[in-house]
Amino acid sequence: MSDHRVIEVIRSRVRESIAVKSELLADARTEQLATIADRIEGSARLGGKVVLFGNGGSAADATHLAAEFVGRFQFDRDPLPALSLSDNCSSVTAIGNDYGYNLSFARQMRALGNPGDVAIAISTSGSSPNVLEGLRAARLRGMYAVGFTGANGVEMAALTDTCVMVPSTDTARIQEAYMLYAHIMCELVEEAMFGAQRDAVRLKPAA
Q1: Is 177:168 a contact under the CB 8 Å cutoff?
Q2: In what side-by-side order are the strands of the sheet with 118-122?
């Protein structure tokens, strides 16, 4: 039998996560997510792409979400163009070495971002210098700038068109909450882009 204190820690953390996620039901935040999904859909229909970036765990989340778009989320469909700027370690380290780590995303954004693309910055603090520089570069490229951050991410919010600020300062709780929203984002885009095709296949009479 596990120690009672261990069980209580587990239950406490689950309760904390539920409490933070319940705040995502607020109308203002759900409208933000709907706007983000709509902008991604609009960009994709015009040949645009999603460019995601972040540091550490946020870098892993950026890669995860790019894979959801390029691969599939809930059903088979055509791929959607998306990439994570942290995936090319040669670019990240070369830029960091030659120009400074603060430009590790901004220089890639200048090379790869196009007007009409959607840039999604992920940072629990919302104050990482290289993430903020990446957003500045995205805005200069004419991209739609999105942020996922925590309650203290005011610097990020100021550089985005739409910024979801999770009402927490705990890194783990912020990550859990924004990934819930990010998965819903993927679902909304996939459904908007390909739901009708999926339904048509389902309704097609057998030969």
Answers
A1: yes
A2: 82-84, 50-54, 118-122, 144-149, 162-165
Q: How far apart are CA 87 and CA 207, in angstroms?
A: 45
Domain that holds residue 60: 4-190
**201 part of a folded domain:** no
Q: How many domains, the chain?
A: 1
172: Cβ contacts below 8 Å, ≥ 6 apart: 13
User: Does residue 80 contact residue 41 with C-beta atoms inside 8 Å?
Assistant: no
In a domain, 27, yes or no: yes
Q: Confirm if 51 and 21 have CB atoms less than 8 A apart.
A: no
Residue 8 counted as domain residue: yes
Rounded CA-CA distance 98/95 in Å is 5
Q: What distance, in Å, lies between the first and last C-alpha atoms of the chain?
A: 58
Please write the tens of the pLDDT for every residue from 26-50: 999 999 999 999 999 999 999 999 9
Instruction: State pTM to two decimals.
Output: 0.94
- Read off the pLDDT of residues 177-207 as tens digits, 9 standing for 90 and up: 999 999 999 999 999 999 988 776 665 565 5
pLDDT tens readout for residues 73-121:
999 999 999 999 999 999 999 999 999 999 999 999 999 999 999 999 9
Question: What CATH number is given to the structural domain containing 162?
Answer: 3.40.50.10490
Q: Is 75 a member of any domain?
A: yes
CA distance 168 to 176: 11
